[in-house]
Records
---
Amino acid sequence: MNRAAIIVAGGRGTRMGTPIPKQYLEIGDKPVLMHTLEIFHKFDQSLDLILVIPENDFSFWEELKDKFGFQVPHQVVAGGKSRFQSVKNGLGAIDWDEGLVAIHDGVRPFVSKEVIGKSFEEAERTGSGIAVVPLKDSIRKLTDENRSFYQERQYFRLVQTPQTFDLGKIRQAFNVTELHHFTDDATVYEHQGWQVSLIAGNAENIKITTPEDMDYAEFLLQKSKT
Ligand SMILES: Nc1ccn([C@@H]2O[C@H](COP(=O)(O)OP(=O)(O)OP(=O)(O)O)[C@@H](O)[C@H]2O)c(=O)n1
Ligand SMILES: C[C@](O)(CO)[C@H](O)COP(=O)(O)O
C-alpha cells in the first residue's frame, strides 16, 4: 500500500514572536523541522515525505539543509495562506491516487513512532486515524452572558497530529470551500458526514507554539536521549 506523510510548516509562528519562524528554530543540534522529518523517516524509510513551507523560504531551507547536512529525502511544496490551504497543496503533490496519507504539524517534533504506526493502522481499517490525548485539567464552558459552566472532562479530548486518512477520501474532503472552523484535518473529513476514528496520542507530542514551549522542547529532547 502507498503511504505518504505531509509535514505542514507553512505558518509564520506569530505567537512565538521570533524573527525566524518557529519551525526553523534549533532545539538540541538542529531545527525543529528536521527533528520532525527524521522521526517519520525513522518510522518508515519508504514513506513519501512532503514538506510544505512558504515559497519565500525555499532558498533558506536549502541553506539550512546544507548547514546541518540534512539527508532525509523529501519533496518541498509551497504553503498557502492558511493551514487548510497548505494541506491542500500537499495533497495535490502526491503522485498516486490510492493509499494512505498522514498529515502532521512540522512543529510537533516529539510524536512517537508508535503513534504514527497506530494512525496508519487505524486509517487502513476505517479511513482515518486521529491522535488525541485526555485532558489533565478541569474545564469550563463560557457563555456570551459572561457565565461559565462545569463540563464533564471525560467526554473531551485534545487533538494532536498525525491525522491519517485514506488518500481518496481526504482529497475529496478538501475539495470544498474553506470554513472558519476547519482548524484541523479531522474537521474537514467530518464535514463530508464521515465519522473520524480516534487513536491514543503521546503526551510529549506538543505543538511548539509560544516561547515557553521552546524550553520544554529542549527538556523533552534531552529526556528522549537518556
Ligand atoms: N498557512 C499555514 C499556517 C500554518 N501552517 C502549519 O500548521 C501547523 C500548526 O499551526 P500553528 O501552530 O498555528 O503555526 P503558525 O500558523 O505558524 O503559528 P501562529 O498561529 O502563532 O502564527 C504549523 O506547523 C504551521 O507551520 C501551515 O502549514 N500553513
Ligand atoms: C492541527 C492542530 O495541531 C490540532 O491540534 C491544531 O488544530 C492547529 O491549530 P492552530 O490554530 O494552527 O494552532
Note: The longest strand covers residues 158-166.
---
Amino acid sequence: MYRAPFWPAPHTDRPVNAYVRVPGSKSMTNRALILAALADGPSTVREPLHSRDSALMAGALSSLGTTIEETADGAWRITPGTLRGPAYVDCGLAGTVMRFLPPVAALADGRVRVDGDPQARNRPMATVINALRLLGARLTGHGLPFEVHGRGRLLGGPVTVDASRSSQFVSGLLLAGARFEQGVSVAHRGKPVPSLPHIGMTVRMLRGAGVDVDDSTPDVWHVRPGPVRAPDTGIEPDLSNAQPFLAAALATGGTVTVPDWPGSTTQAGDAIRGLLGEMGASLARTPEGLAVTGPGRLRGVDADLHAAGELTPTVVALAALADGPSRLRGIAHLRGHGTDRLGALQRELNALGGAVEQTPDGLVVTPRALHAGTWHACNDHRMATAGAILGLVVPGIEVDDITATGRTLPDFPDLWEAMAKG
Ligand SMILES: O=C(O)C1=C[C@@H](OP(=O)(O)O)[C@@H](O)[C@H](O)C1
Ligand SMILES: C=C(OP(=O)(O)O)C(=O)O
C-alpha cells in the first residue's frame, strides 16, 4: 500500500513576512459546477479550484452526461447534457460531492451508484437519502455506498429535514430543486443548522442563475420550479484555505498578505478576520490585499464557531500557542466532518504535550509547552494545515501525510515552504 512520506513541517525563528495568493473557493467552485450542469445552456467557470474535491465533482457530473472542457487559462467550459445513468460517482471524502450530487443523480435516467473513501462512510448521509425518497426518488441503501434509480425526472415538493449535523443537506436539495417538477420547499426541524453562511452562498448563487428562492422565513427555503440560467462565474479566492497562511503571521509575529480578499462575500471563511483580531492581530486592507500582522502576545479566545466550523483546526493551533486558555463552542457537528475533528485535534495536540479537552459542543484549549512529534492528518486537509501552523514555531513536528491538503489545496506544501523561507 502506498504511504505518503512524512513531511517535516518548516520551522522558523523569524517572523514570517509573505504575500500568498490562494486558489479559488471549493464551495463556490462545486456549486458553480452543479448549476452549470443543470443549466439550459453552456457556461464558463473562471478561476475554479483545481483540487481533488472539485475534480471529483467534475468527474461525477461528466459521468452523468455533462461535458466539461478546460480552456488554456484553466477555466472550465461546461455544456449540460441529458442526465443519464448508468454511472458511478466517487465522492472521495468531499461533503459537497456526497450531499450535492445525489439530488442531481435523482434527475438522471438510469442507475447511479454513489460511493467514496472508506472514511467517507462515517459521514452523515441518511438525511439526504431520506429527503430524496420523500421527494419521489427511488434509492437503495441508507448511507455510502448507495444507489439512485432515476427516471429522468423528480416530483419534488415540500420536505422536512433535520439539518443540525450539516448545512449541506439543505444546500444540496436547493441547488437541484428548480429542476424538480414542483420545485422544493425545505423546512428544517431540529437543533440549529450549522454553517448558515454556506446556505447563504447557495441562495445567492441560485439567484445569480435566475432561480426564484424565498428564504424569508428562518429555517424554511422555497425554490420555485424553472430553468437554471448559469451565468459565467468568476470564483473568489478560498478564504478558508487562506486561514493557515494568515495564522502564520500570528504564530510568528510577522505579516502575511492575501490578495483579492473580497469586499463582501458569502464565504464562511471571512469570519477568520474577526477571530484573528480577537487573538490580537492587526488587519488592514492594503492595495496588495488583506494584510494581517501578528501581535507580540497571542491572546486566547472564547468563540462560537457554529457558523464557520471549518476555521476550528486553525483557531485551535493558534489557541495552543496563545498566552491563555481558549473555549470554542457550537461545533459538535465537526465530529461528522472528514474526520472527527474534535477528537482528532484533542488527540494530536495532547500527544505533543498540549492540554485540550472536549466539551459536548466544542473544545477547551489550555496552552502548554509543546514538543516535537508526529502530527496525524487523518486524511483531513484542515488537520494537516493545523499541524503545519504548529510546526512553524515548535521544532521537530512532522505531518504524517501532507498530501491530505490535496482535497482543496494541492499546492499547500509549496506555498507553505515558500512562505516560511520568506
Ligand atoms: O456547503 C459547503 O460548501 C460547506 C458547508 C459546511 O459544511 P457543514 O455544514 O457540514 O459544516 C462547511 O463545513 C464545508 O467545508 C463546506
Ligand atoms: C468540512 C469541510 O469539507 P466538506 O464538508 O465539504 O467535506 C472542510 O472543507 O472543512
Note: The chain has two domains: 7-23+237-421, 26-234.
---
Amino acid sequence: MLTISGLAVDVAGRRVVDGVDLDLAAGEITALAGRSGSGKSLTARAVAGLLPGGATVSGRVLLNRDGRAEDLLGLSPHRLRRLRGSAIGYVFQESQAALNPTVTVGGHLLETLKAHGVPRPHRRTRGLAALRQAGLPAPERLWSAYPFELSGGQAQRVALALASALDPPVLIADEVTSALDPVTQAGVLDILRAGARVGQRAVLLITHDLAVAGCWADRLAVLDGGRIVESGPSCRVLRAPAHPFTADLVRASGVVPSGADSADAHVSARVAGERA
Ligand SMILES: Nc1ncnc2c1ncn2[C@@H]1O[C@H](COP(=O)(O)OP(=O)(O)OP(=O)(O)O)[C@@H](O)[C@H]1O
C-alpha cells in the first residue's frame, strides 16, 4: 500500500533519518521501534508531510492505490492536505493536546468530514460510526463533550476515530498508547488491529516498546540513529535478533518471545494476558 524508499530527513543541518526503506502492506501492522531520538517520529511525520519547519526531506513515499502510485513527497501542500485524513490518517501521542479545547467531540468529527466533502446529512451518522468503531460504544453521550471532559483513553479513541473517519487506507499511530494503562492500551491496539484486518488498512505503529510491537505488529523494523538496522516478521526479529542493537533492545525491554515463527505468535512478558 505504501512503499517508502531512501527516505532521509535533515533538521538544522543534521541527518536524523537516513535512507529508510519500508513496505507497508494492506491488512498488516508494521511497527517502527527504536530508542528515544532514533528518528521514529520524524520518519512518520515525513510520510504524512508533517515535518517541522526547516526540515528537508528526500527519497520516495509511494502510495499505491487503484493501480496508481503517487509519490507523496512530490505533492503540493494543497494536495497533501486533501490526502491527509482521506488517504493517510495520523494519530498523535498527545491526543488531548491535538484536540481543540473549545470544540466538542462531535464538532471535531463534523469539521473533518465537512473538510473532505462528506455531504451534511451524512456527517453525524458517519461521525458516530467512527466513534463506535474506535471502541466508544455509546458515542451519542460523548458527542457534546469537550476534550477536557474525556479520560486519556477516551481522548485517544476520539483521536483514532478522527483519523479513521474517512477510512484511509494508511494509518500512522505515533506512540498512541504510551500514556495509557495496560488494559486501555490493549483496547486501543486491538482497534488498530481490527482496522488493519477488517478494513484492509496498512498501519504504521511507532513505538519505543518492543512488547507492544511484538504483541500487535505483524512486522517490525528497528531504527537506530535514523537507519533501519533490522526488519522482518515481528516474532522472528524478537526471537532471533540479527543485529546487536536489536538484541540489546530486546534484552532491555524484558520481552520474552515465545511460540511459533508465525507473525501472529505470542510474545510473553509484562504484557502477557493483554492480548485479546
Ligand atoms: N523540530 C526539531 N528540531 C531539531 N531537531 C529535531 C526536531 N525534531 C526532532 N529532532 C531531532 O531528530 C532526532 C529524531 O527525533 P524523533 O522525534 O524522530 O525521534 P524518536 O525516535 O521519535 O524519539 P522519541 O521516542 O523520544 O519520540 C532527534 O535527535 C531529535 O532531537
Note: Confidence is low (pLDDT under 50) at residues 259-276.
